[in-house]
Amino acid sequence: MSRLDEPLKKLVGDRTATVLAKSLKLDTVGDLLRHYPRRYAERGRLTDLSRLEPEEHVTVMAEIAKVTKRPFRNRRGNLLEVEVTDGRGKLTLVFFNQAWREEELRPGRRGLFAGKVGRFNNAVQLSRPDYQLIGEDDEDGVANVFAGALIPVYPAAANMPSWKVAQCVGMALDTLGEIGDPLPAEMRTRRGMPGLAEALVQVHRPTSWEDVAAAKDRLKWDEAFVLQIALARRRRDARAQSAVARPRRPDGILDAFDARLPFELTDGQKEVCAEIETDLAGEHPMHRLLQGEVGAGKTLVALRGMLTVVDAGGQTALLAPTEVLAQQHYRSIVEMLGPLAEGAGMLGGSEVGTKVTLLTGSMGVAARRAALLDLVTGEAGIAIGTHALIEDRVEFHDLGLVVVDEQHRFGVEQRDALRGKGKRPPHLLVMTATPIPRTVAMTVFGDLETSILAQLPSGRSPIATHVVPAKEKPHFLDRAWERVREEVGKGHQAYVVCPRIGDEDDDPKAKKKAGTKAAKKGARKRDEDLPAEAYPDDPDDIGADADGGAEERRPPLAVLDIAAALGDGPLAGLRVAVLHGRMAPEDKDDVMRRFTAGEVDVLVATTVIEVGVNVPNATAMVIMDADRFGVSQLHQLRGRVGRGSAPGLTLLVSEMPGGTSARARLDAVAATLDGFELSRIDLEQRREGDVLGDAQSGSRSSLRMLEVVRDEDLIVAAREEASSIVTTDPDLTEHPDLRSALASILDDERAEYLDKG
């Protein structure tokens, strides 16, 4: 076992190792040494307190400006408030019943203060913080941390502040010795990079900013190069697989379909169709990402690929994440195919037709049995369905192409299960309207063949997007509901989207009352049953009051609450219906049918309408608590409007104040309709930590220094180096340290994830 693989308990003892593992997911010496500083403080300089984000665990350097002690009003005890400053901003440290700290926390002293950022009465604070005063003697030698010119500030946890992490890192560096280096010596010399051990010392104990820059460049190379080795080996293995070639056949169903199209394909659609056609004609499995703007015609492009496979004697399967979307795809594809959507020679069908079969989990026994028979006999050339398609009992006669819509909504195991139903590896086409971070990351890393549809078909209208600051300007929310009424008055329809369903509350009166207040003025509501994970994107505004109480951000607004409030209030008299995932399938289908037919004016829904729903007459969308959604999700949602000749309008309602990261995200969505640009923003904010599947496995990300958006040039160079090595030494027999590094980040679970993904 190498020094980097050594368990931390041998270095720091069982108790500290347990805290590091539970709080920061650090298990080995290598994990600890790759837990890099998030920033550096310069001795004598204070932290910029204006940049603190609520809910973040931070360590700040500041000077004590004022200390106040006062008793609680309604109970025994006291509150000690310590105001610290950097000369530009202020931060309040709050201690409960710890008046004795007043002796050491004196105005004029400087120190590092660590804790979880909260907010109370519009003031930023740390409640019950940990701290280390600079220059103070310390039996454990903590003050030695401050001996260097630059002080590393680490990502921390409540029970493991930055200086304790620094202590552990120091112990690891002091006993490190010689370690293997994944970068070949010839490459390091040619590119002028330091060795791994030297880079680790530079990043944790820098004496200058030049040390920091050199170390970061080298450590980014480690991550990019080792991952590129993994991807290069995967590309090599993929080229070794064989698939059934599905070349285009003239005078088949595809030609018949093209002949009945009432419009001409855009240039972008023609180009992507040609790329897919070339892939399908090859003898190796296609593995292509189709990234198309909302409304750019991805489904049409995918359908032409499916018809190519049907003409070549194979079957195709379209996997959709929800029943609403699966049914929508089924209806639209049957409508586009017309008489071609029947088996050849069937009454009313075409001589070159193929049957389209729908399979979902809610189907009755008889319908399900008939669908399964269509698939196993080959009667159906096109199967459309949800997760029901991947069940064990589902068999295909000859599955040649798998199309996965909104691929990020499926786990790797689900996608792989469907691909495994082919006698030989089927071709794979994954579609998304806005790439999620992993997709963008893998695209930048060059592992996917990518097609982009950026050109909208003629007849599509622009979508205007505006942020509605409901708390700062409540009359803007009133105006939003007026705009909805105006659109309905013109004969159009609207969506209202909420983050939550709302049936967790058993008190309908309380629910209706809270919903009315929130719909009108964005008021707060408390729901004790709501799990914190329901709104993970943005932190709660938590702060302690003088009595030790707390002010908490309310739970997200709910469909049932808002629908009732709107029907009785701002949208009274309009036909309002609800749609959410807990409704019975037949009820969901009935609501969508009535909305599509124009029998419903306003549809209040969860994100069940996020993808695939196509109602050209819907022109307006109001997204409540828009800050609870991600950038890509907001872009997907607004793609449901403006699908006809009338312009679309999307209103992003939020209570988050200006200047916060949440509002910055909303402003970014309002500023551009470029989905790919938004995906880059999403990636910059959320990073690319799941590129090796750690989101699925719960493992720590392998990418800690590298940023795929900012480091594209480095990644391209690393890919060239990795491809060269894999070509000459595919098993890495001549590069044992590189092989060990690859094994350390690519355990069996991640290797399987990468292979299937």
From TrEMBL:
Occurrences of domain Helicase ATP-binding (ranges): 279-453
Source superkingdom: Bacteria
Entry keywords, A to Z: ATP-binding, DNA damage, DNA repair, DNA-binding, Helicase, Hydrolase, Nucleotide-binding
SUPFAM superfamilies assigned: Nucleic acid-binding proteins, P-loop containing nucleoside triphosphate hydrolases
Recorded GO MF terms: ATP binding; DNA binding; DNA helicase activity; hydrolase activity
Biased composition (Acidic residues): 535-544
Gene3D superfamilies: Nucleic acid-binding proteins, P-loop containing nucleotide triphosphate hydrolases
Presence of the UniProt keyword DNA damage in the record: yes
Composition bias, Basic residues: 510-524
GO annotation terms (biological process): DNA repair
Pfam families assigned to the protein according to its UniProt record, in alphabetical order: DEAD, Helicase_C, RecG_dom3_C, RecG_wedge
Region (Disordered): 499-551
Matching CDD domains: DEXHc_RecG (cd17992), RecG_wedge_OBF (cd04488)
InterPro entries: DEAD/DEAH_box_helicase_dom, Helicase_ATP-bd, Helicase_C-like, NA-bd_OB-fold, P-loop_NTPase, RecG/Mfd, RecG_dom3_C, RecG_wedge
UniProt keyword annotation of DNA-binding present: yes
Limits of the Helicase C-terminal domain: 476-684
Protein name in UniProt: Probable DNA 3'-5' helicase RecG
Source species: Embleya scabrispora
